[in-house]
Design goal:
The structure holds two protein chains of two kinds. Chain A is α+β, with helices and mostly antiparallel strands. Chain A has 13 helices and five strands. Chain A has a five-stranded mixed sheet, covered by helices on one side. The chains are: A alpha+beta, B alpha/beta. At the A-B interface, α9, α10 and α11 of A face α2, α3, α4 and α6 of B.
Chain lengths: ~450, ~210
């Protein structure tokens, strides 16, 4: 689900994250030790990234070895028949291994992306095409393989593992290497004074520059691992196709519901009214009293039909939303709710009508959720428009524990927002409070000028 | 009694005019938009203005805005707003526009012409007529937190009718009880809700609405 990206602990200067200096050391020394510790940690992470690069390379080499062995055995087939069999066997083994190796490189690339965000302050988005089958559905080997092989990102991962295994890791290992080299130069028994000084300089540089060296590695990784323009567009197209289908399904279901409501409600009542009026017309001379009773009955039926039409209209597009816009429509909603609802709004104009309507029903569904599940006494709604985005926060003081993966209510809200590229984020620890934030990119039209 | 009507749909305007005339009311002007309404009430203030919420040119809440503007122009002008749907939000805005002389009813209420004309007369006399649906929603909102739990079912009925703006006599007639019984119920309600009792019908309505709306 689309939850806004976390900043990802991406802080290249390690000092901020460290413990306070211990009290019995002089302050500058303690600060220096702290600094040292932080930089050494960075160098250590560089070493781990190097290890990852080598692991990726090892995967490729294993595959390469299998094919090479097969090729070598084939060269020798002129001598013996058995060699050919061996060669074919190794070839088959290599081919069978290939998908596993591809999956392995994908895992290496995934880990690199994540670590690049956490350690190098260079977050990298995943470029993979989503699986073309539904979540949790089983897919055959051929489908899985096809999915893997047709994704351009698979081949870019392979390229990355190769390049990273050969030269990329040099940047990752640089902080540790420079430090070790410097320390070695200082400690080696045959070093002269000049070389020792040089060693100190090298080690100091290695430690000082470690965050930037690692960052450089991250930037390098991003240049190869980030989604290409084409991949980004492919992802976008898929997302649009999905949300469009969902939106069409939802609106078709909505229209069916309206048709059914009209058919069973107002229409049926009008038919009954017509029949009652006809009966009244036939009785008006012979039995005026009965005719009068029927007329009153017809009047009551018309009142009921109107009430049903009103309820229906409220569910399609509430009049107050059309009249006054989002803030007042939500205010009207709040007035009808048994909960205490506090509304704050800084909307100066009106979002486009479809977005306004989606936002209104999203809030309405959230409020219904709150009163159904959260046992909250108060709810706060916050409407803001900043940087081309409509932000709606709905926070309650109920008992929390809302989960968009389980609750169909939150999933429905998400579906409502998706066609507008709107996203929903939920924070609901057990014990509360629950905070739901919705964001919809849109333009605001200038407020309507009143004629009175 | 002199009445101005603002309603943009000809059939309804015509029907309303004929119905009110049949009850002996004098229709001095029947217009189809907010600006004409303002001109009509400013030129010759009527006893009451009956205004539809949806009017041209915007067909949104033009009628509410026209009603509020008319009351600014002619302070104390009794206004009865009619609508296909009712909102507490609009009821509050209308009630906040001055004390008394305010009505806010669903259009369906004209089906019962006797009751409707009664409401028109009440508003013209400076009273209040709030639609039962608004009151029902106000009450529903307040039953949640238990502040009305102390009231008996009969007292709640009386409270609802009182909030609509009806006098003791009207409540007595509606519930088929004596006026003395109604007075007893209202006294008990005011005591239980810790409200200041008042003999003035209008002040009483506003106190009850303020209590329910807080």
């Amino acid at each position: 689900m689309p939850v806004p990206k976390q900043p990802g602990g991406a802080d290249p200067s390690p000092e901020s994250a460290e413990d306070p200096p211990s009290p019995d050391l002089p302050v500058p020394l303690a600060a220096f030790l702290n600094w040292m510790r932080g930089r050494l940690a960075v160098a250590g992470r560089g070493l781990l990234l190097w290890g990852l690069a080598l692991a990726g390379l090892a995967l490729l080499l294993a595959l390469l070895a299998a094919f090479t062995a097969s090729a070598l055995l084939m060269v020798k087939t002129s001598d013996r028949y058995a060699h050919l069999v061996g060669a074919v066997l190794v070839l088959v083994a290599g081919l069978a291994l290939s998908p596993l190796v591809l999956l392995g490189t994908r895992q290496v690339a995934r880990l690199t992306r994540r670590l690049s965000g956490q350690w190098c302050a260079v977050p990298i988005a995943d470029p993979y095409l989503p699986a073309p089958w539904a979540d949790g559905a089983k897919a055959g080997l051929r489908r899985r393989l096809g999915w893997l092989l047709t994704d351009q990102a698979t081949w870019r991962d392979l390229l990355w593992v190769t390049v990273d295994g050969c030269v990329g890791w040099i940047l990752a290992i640089a902080p540790a290497a420079l430090t070790v080299l410097g320390v070695f130069a200082v400690l080696a028994p045959y070093s002269s004074g000049f070389i020792r000084l040089f060693g100190v300089a090298i080690a100091a540089f290695g430690l000082w520059a470690s965050p930037w060296l690692l960052r450089g590695y991250g930037v390098f990784a991003r240049s190869m691992l980030a989604p290409t323009r084409r991949a980004a567009l492919a992802l976008r197209v898929r997302e649009l196709a999905e949300t469009r289908t969902e939106a069409l399904d939802t609106s078709a279901a909505e229209i069916r519901r309206i048709e059914r409501d009209l058919h069973d409600g107002a229409q049926a009542r009008l038919v009954a009214m017509g029949m009652t009026l006809d009966a009244a017309g036939q009785l008006v001379d012979s039995n005026p009293e009965a005719a009068r009773a029927l007329l009153f009955e017809a009047r009551d039926a018309s009142v009921k039909a109107l009430a049903e039409l009103r309820a229906l209209v409220r569910g399609i597009h509430p009049p107050v939303l059309a009249d006054r816009g989002l803030a007042d429509a939500i205010r009207a909603l709040a007035l009808d709710s048994p909960m205490r609802i506090h509304l704050e709004s800084d909307l100066r104009g009106r979002p486009p009508a479809p977005i306004e309507s989606a936002a209104y029903f999203a809030v309405s569904e959230l409020l219904a959720n709150v009163s159904k599940h959260a046992q909250a006494r108060q709810t706060w709604i916050d409407l803001r428009y900043t940087d081309g985005t409509l932000r709606i926060g709905v926070t309650d003081n109920g008992h929390g524990g809302a989960d968009p993966a389980r609750g169909s209510g939150l999933r429905g809200v998400e579906r409502r927002l998706a066609p507008f590229d709107g996203v929903l984020a939920v924070s609901s620890p057990p014990g509360g409070p629950t905070a739901v934030t919705m964001e919809i990119p849109c333009e605001l039209s200038s407020p309507k000028t009143s004629s009175c | 009694m002199r009445v101005v009507i603002a309603e943009d749909i000809f059939l309804l305007r015509d029907g309303l005019t004929r119905m009110l005339q049949a009850h002996g009311l004098d229709i001095v002007a029947a217009v189809d938009n907010g600006d004409d309404l303002l001109a009509a009430v400013a030129a010759d203030p009527p006893d009451v203005a009956i205004v539809d919420v949806r009017l041209p040119p915007t067909f949104t809440d033009e009628g509410i805005r026209a009603a509020l503007a008319a009351r600014r122009k002619v302070p104390g002008l009794p206004v009865l707003v009619l609508s296909q749907y009712v909102e507490q939000l609009y009821a509050r805005e209308l009630l906040a526009s001055g004390t008394g002389g305010i009505g806010y009813l669903l259009k369906d209420r004209v089906f019962d012409s006797a009751q409707f004309v009664d409401a028109v007369r009440r508003v013209a006399a400076g009273g209040t007529a709030i639609d039962p649906e608004v009151i029902a929603r106000l009450l529903a909102r307040n039953t949640g937190d238990g502040s009305l739990a102390a009231l008996s079912p009969r007292e709640r009925e009386v409270l609802a009718l009182m909030a609509e703006g009806r006098s003791n006599a009207a409540i007595a007639q509606r519930l088929v009880i004596t006026e003395r019984a109604v007075a007893k119920h209202t006294a008990s309600i005011f005591l239980k809700l810790d409200l200041q009792p008042s003999d003035d019908d209008n002040r009483r309505v506003l106190a009850v609405l303020a209590y329910l709306g807080s």
